[in-house]
Amino acid sequence: MEQTIKNKLLLLDDLIEKVKSLKQEGKVVVQTHGVFDLIHPGVIRHLNMSKKEGDVLIATIIKDRDVRRGPDRPIFSEDSRIASVASLEQVDFVCLVDDKKPFECVRRINPDVFSKGQALTERDRKTHKTLYEEKKELLFGKSRICETDVFPFNPSMVTYGLSVINNYLDIYSDVTKSFLQTFSEKYSFEEISKKIDKLENLKVLLIGDGIIDEYHYCESMGKSPKAQLIVNKHLSQEVFPGGAFAIANHIASITKEVHLVTLLGNEDSREDFILENLKPNVNTRFFYRDDGPTVIKKRYINQYQKQKLFEINYINDCYINNGVEEGIISYVKSVIDNYDLVLVSDFGHGFITNKLILEVERLSKYLAVNAQSNGANSGYNLITKYNHPNFICLDTPEARLATQDKFSEIESVGKKLSKSLGTDNIMITMGKKGSICIKKNGDVIRMPGFSTKVVDVIGAGDAFFSYAAPCFCVNMPIDMVSFIGNAAGALDVQIVGNKKTVERGELLGFIHTILK
């Protein structure tokens, strides 16, 4: 790399100090931020217009691990992307940044001007108003926002780039490409966006098991000479809100408000952590058990192979006592009529009792249920304990366990479940194969999978459920619901655990990409 290009590359802390120095010299600093995967004419035009807004233009490039723009994105590695941008004469400094918290680097760098692409349609202007203008100070601090006339959605200039990605880089099979072509002819991006917008005012009550997920990263040190086990060295750890906490955050990205009813433990409640990691529009009502902790699942992972080694659960999986149960039921009965949609996220950890189920079934206007089978409930937590929910979401093993049918075609399994439970719609996820939805009348909708890069499958079903349930509640077409759910799941498998939420803007960006 030429020295002039190398001189443009700065670490974030160094760039922050450089910007301070430039501003003290009276220079106007402009920042642009993004993936910069394909440098097409639209990107060049955006950079040219951004440069005119000040004296110095800096470009912050999102690291590979935080890119969730579509399947197999980014096409080029972070090293290649920063080198490409640094080669452009319009750009004075380039920095590779995390994007776990969107635009965190903008707040830290504090440029005079933040330059972004312009929304094209009224629909997109509304989306950008939500994403940018209404949260301007939170996202960008005191920086002035400048819109160039390059469009992030439906852009004529970037259509070429998206076409290259979708048609020539073999991201999907010919069957999936053909499906997407047919689907895009039936539903436009704008139509799907408008449908998702309608979820904003949906009143949602979420009742479910909250879980704290801990990921402990280790490296193998060798076999113990005194026992048949491998000794591991602990390197680092991450903690995420999982279970119903993660579902609440997903739903909060598409609705104005979510009300979460869940159970904590008095022994180790983790309440402060939970409240800090729930979105501001998630309202909570916590109940407490004296005979156990808040559910904590610790997974130990080989740092280099990214392979899960084992898991330890801190849990009392017995049902809550009668006093706590009565308090929960009384509260739910007092508020449930205020909500359009009730979601039950049942992990089988002692919170969702049979009495509570009966009341929720009786009082809900629209009931969506996900009953999970996991290592902590050993197949005892089956969907068959529910009757006549409006929507059920399961994965393939959960559906087979519920029907005790190991070998039949999954379509047959789904129809058997639909008939026995009396549900309007049942959706079964099938990993890379996508999903299948069975309607009450026996109609079947199959949807291919859209995931091409799988980092971690933990939480993908929760993301699918979080988006599919509200979509069904507002009577979206069944194939559109399946499509949106699969897109949310495809984004979520690119995330470690529940480290990040599938945000509405990211989902729309993903959908826009794969429909081009």
Main attributes of the structure:
38% helix, UDP-N-acetylmuramoyl-L-alanine:D-glutamate ligase, 2 domains, alpha/beta, 19 helices, 516 residues, Rossmann fold, 18 strands, five-stranded parallel beta sheet
Give the full name of the CATH homologous superfamily of the largest domain.
Answer: Ribokinase
How much of the sequence lies in strands comes to 15-25%
Radius of gyration: 24 Å
Poorly predicted residue ranges: 119-139, 151-164
Q: How many domains in all?
A: 2
Q: What topology, given as strand order, has the largest sheet?
A: 10-9-6-13-14-15-16-17-18
Helix content: 25-40%
- Terminal Cα span: 34 Å
Please state the overall shape, judged from the principal axes of the Cα atoms: globular
Please tally the β strands and state the result.
18
Biggest pleated sheet? 9 strands, mixed
Task: Please count the helical segments.
Answer: 19
CATH names the topology of the largest domain as UDP-N-acetylmuramoyl-L-alanine:D-glutamate ligase
Can you identify the CATH class of the largest domain? Answer: Alpha Beta
Question: What structural class should be given to the helix and strand makeup?
Answer: alpha/beta
What integer is the average pLDDT? 88
CATH architecture of the largest domain: 3-Layer(aba) Sandwich
Produce a short descriptive summary.
The chain has 516 residues and is of the alpha/beta class. The chain has helices at 3-6, 12-24, 41-51, 78-86, 104-109, 122-131, 136-140, 156-168, 174-186, 189-197, 244-252, 271-277, 322-335, 354-363, 396-403, 410-421, 460-473, 478-492, 504-515; strands at 29-34, 56-62, 93-97, 113-116, 144-147, 204-208, 210-223, 230-243, 258-265, 282-289, 296-302, 307-314, 341-346, 367-371, 391-395, 425-429, 435-439, 444-447. Helix 4 links the parallel strand 2 (56-62) and strand 3.
